[in-house]
Amino acid sequence: MSAGAIFVWELLGTATLILLGNGVVANHVLRKNNGHNAGFLFINLGWAFAVFTGASIANPSGAHLNPAVTLGLAIADKTEWSDVPFYVAGQMVGAILGAILCWATYKLQFDDHPEPENTLGIFSTGPQIANTAWNLVTEIIGTFVLVAWILLSPSFKAGDAGVPTFGNSALGYAGVSFVVLVIGASLGGPTGYAINPARDLGPRIAYAFVLPIKNKANANWGYSWIPVVGPLVGGAVAALLYLAVHNLT
C-alpha cells in the first residue's frame, strides 16, 4: 500500500474513532443531552464500539489508529519502519479532525455548559490522583495489554500486501473492541486510559488551539506527555515480549 493511502485510511479511521469516543464523553458530561450523567460504563461502551467503527473503516491500512500499536507492530517486524511516519501522521491529523467534529456536533451544548473551564476531559485524559510515576505506570500497563493481545492473538497473520490482520477470526475488529472495553472497565479508573498517544494529544491540540469554547481552561500540558510516553513504552514492551516468545519456539 502506498504511503498516501496509509495516511488517508488512518486519518479516516482515527477521525471516526475520536468523533465517536469524544462524543460519548460529551454526551455524558454536557447538560441538555439525552445521555447526560449516563456513567462510566456508558463511556467505556461508547469508546469500545468507536474502536470497532474506526478500525472497520481503516481496514485497508491495517487499522492501527494508534501510534503505540504502530510502534509495536514495527518493532515486531509486522509493519515497515518506512511506513511508520505516514501511519502516525494520519492518526494525528485524524484525531484533531475528530475532536473538531465532536465539538461541532455538540456546539450548542458547549455554549450552554455552566462549567466551560472543565471541558478538557471531554477531549483528553487526566489522572484522578496526580502522580507522575504511577500515572505513567498505569498507561504503560493498559497499553501493554492492548498491544500484547494484538500481537499474541492466535489469529494474527499477515494479510494482503503484508498488511497485518489481527483478532479473533469470527469477531474481527469487535475482538479489539472487547479488549478496549475491559481495559477501560478494569484499568481505566486512575488515568482515563488514553492507551493511545494520538487519541489524547490530537484532541488536546484541537482544544488548545482550534476549538472556540468560551472560558475554557488550559490544556494541562504538564500532564500531556504521560499519555504519549506511557502508551509508546507499553507498546514497545509488548512487542519485545512477542519477539522473546517467538524466539523460544
Automatic annotation (TrEMBL):
- Location in the cell: Membrane
What family is reported? Answer: Belongs to the MIP/aquaporin (TC 1.A.8) family.
Indicate the principal place this protein occupies in or around the cell: membrane
Repeat is among the record's keywords = no
Q: What cellular component terms from Gene Ontology apply here?
A: plasma membrane
The keyword Nucleotide-binding belongs to this UniProt entry's keyword annotation: no
* Organism name: Amycolatopsis xylanica
Query: Gene3D superfamilies per the record?
Result: Glycerol uptake facilitator protein
Tell me the membrane topology, using the record's own terms: Multi-pass membrane protein
Protein name, as recorded: Glycerol uptake facilitator protein
**UniProt keyword terms in alphabetical order:** Membrane, Transmembrane, Transmembrane helix, Transport
Q: Sorted alphabetically, which PROSITE patterns does this protein's record hold?
A: MIP
